[in-house]
Amino acid sequence: MTHHTTYPQAIPTVAMPAPGSLYPASVEQAYRQAGYWTDETFAEFLDDAASRFGTQEAVVANRLDGQQIRLSYQELNRAAAQRAKQLLNVGIRPGDRVIVQLPNVLEYLIEVFALWRMAAVPVFALPAHRRSEIEHFIRSAGARGLSTCQQHAGFSHQALAAELQRDYPDLIVLLHGEDAGGATQPPSPTASAGLESVDLPASHALAMLQVSGGTTGVPKLIPRSHADYLYSVRRSAEICKLNTATRFLVALPASHNFTMSSPGILGVLYAGGTVVFCADPSPSTVGALIEAEAITMTAAVPPLAMAWMNILPALGFDLSSLEVLQVGGAKFTPQAASRVAETLQCQLQQVFGMAEGLVNYTRLDDPHEVCIHTQGRPMSPADEVLVVDDHGQEVPAGQRGHLLTRGPYTIRGYLGGVDAGSFNEEGFYRTGDIVRRREDGYLVVEGRDKDQIHRGGEKISAEEIEDHLLAHSLVKDAALVAIPDAYLGERSCAFVLVAEDIAGDSSQHRSNAEALRAHLKARGLAAYKIPDDFRFVRQFPVTGVGKISRKQLRRALADTLDAQRSNTSV
Ligand code: OOB
């Protein structure tokens, strides 16, 4: 995956899937006939919402300058239309992919709706992404625009944008924030300022590129259509019983699929409720906003939910408006799940989803036992779920197996085509998750077969980090594996086969670990992807065909951790 590029470079021309090519024609027809898919698109989403909900409050959010703003549906719609015209004027064209990398601020919401309004395609980067990821999105999506801010959480996005623009001179940087001016390129004199000239997309056309947790090399781009994504939004809003009284706190990164659509920002706006953006997810900020804004619902990944449960009760905020806490993105242990009601005085809803599609929910009227012990059941009656053994044979209810799925909002291929590793011949997506399906149809997540590390809510691709490690002269081979962690669920340990024979020498070990950390940082990796731990080894355990056996590495790690634990306890 490492490309030895000389700069400056042209942004690659990447063909996007044509409308109607994302699903087989017969499948599309069936989903339309059943009413799952409609003609609605995200280009008209806000217009429709504004005509239904007019002056009701749509959003409460800080701008990048720190000022809190409240907008009605009409005002939000007007702001997005205005911004869409600006985007046309700076040279963004319908169909262009634009990477959106913004924190939880008002500008994010306006930007995404503005892009949809002018039939452009947002690429949903996360604030934690760095050069490595953003450049990959530019190259693999042929993205012409990068919408970002000056700085956030101690990182200069402006400097990164400048660097990328130097390396890709055609890149249009849309820089938000104080005195940022909105764009680094002067308005194009030829662009018409009118939105009237923009042809609205078809509902089966590509609407956005979501980003996978990344299972091989680098994050894969997930092509979602208007019709499939909107169906998941409508159905999620229905299951979660959203209405005009819903006040949803956006505490997780806004652009994540969970936050956008399960039911998230889009579900709430579809139902006429209010989204309240939280600048940071710390218990004090969250508690203050729940009280001040009478929040009824919010969503967290397990480590965040745990921090809230541990700290919020002692802070003394009035949390009585809170009805539902959604937890998803990684396994929430029954032990933690059972503490939600008593610590936060609200109901728990478990959400097991993936940016590729399938989302499972526990229902609001499910028995307590189901909400604590399962990760829910598929949202749609048309979701097809298979639980199979290693040979692809379905296993009986109650037994563990690989989860495969197909349905009205699950992709049939990543951007760039179908790879047989991720999709079977019948179009089922191989989720990589190991689950048990109970007799009642509810799923319990048991683990996964892909080598993805789930560090808190963040997913780390072992192969991606290994590729970067291998680029260092010290490294002969590398394998990243997960270490169980009481707080994060998992953290990462890099096993490294080094060129010199230093295994066992602890001072060398420390300086090598430091050197590799610095190396990864210099390659522009997000901080959460830098291994938490390094082990230097003389050889790797291997499988029958000579591949590194991660299973054995994990076991070795578990053994040494056990040994350490029993040493410290005596
Ligand atoms: C969500 O989406 P992604 O694409 O970041 O990650 C998907 C993967 C799943 O394949 C599974 O391995 C894991 O994250 N996962 C869970 C889980 N929810 C997701 N594992 C155990 N228990 C859960 N509740 O993470 C995502 C997308 C939409 C809604 C919610 C989460």
- What summary fits the major beta sheet? 9 strands, mixed
Shape: globular
The total count of helices amounts to: 17
Structural class: alpha/beta
Count every beta strand, where a strand is a DSSP E run of 2 or more residues.
Answer: 26
What is the strand arrangement across the widest sheet? 2-1-12-11-13-14-15-16-17
CATH fold description of the domain at 452-569: GMP Synthetase, Chain A, domain 3
| CATH top level class name of the domain at 452-569 | Alpha Beta
Distance between the termini: 47 Å
Keywords:
AMP-dep_synth/lig_dom; four-stranded parallel β-sheet; 570 residues; globular; AMP-bd_C_sf; GMP Synthetase, Chain A, domain 3; EC 6.3.2.-; binds 5'-O-[(R)-(benzoyloxy)(hydroxy)phosphoryl]adenosine; alpha/beta
What would a concise description of this structure say?
By secondary structure, the protein is an alpha/beta fold. It has a domain at 452-569: GMP Synthetase, Chain A, domain 3 (2-Layer Sandwich).
General description of the model:
There is one protein chain. The chain is of the alpha/beta class and 570 residues long. The protein has a domain at 452-569: GMP Synthetase, Chain A, domain 3 (2-Layer Sandwich), CATH 3.30.300. The strands form seven sheets. The chain has a nine-stranded mixed beta sheet, sandwiched between helices. A hairpin with a 2-residue loop joins β15 (347-354) and β16 (357-361). α2 runs antiparallel to α3 (73-89), α3 packs across α4 (106-117) and α7 (226-239) crosses α9 (264-271). The longest helix has 20 residues, at 550-569. The model has no long low-confidence stretch (mean pLDDT 91). 5'-O-[(R)-(benzoyloxy)(hydroxy)phosphoryl]adenosine binds next to α8, β15, β20 and β21.
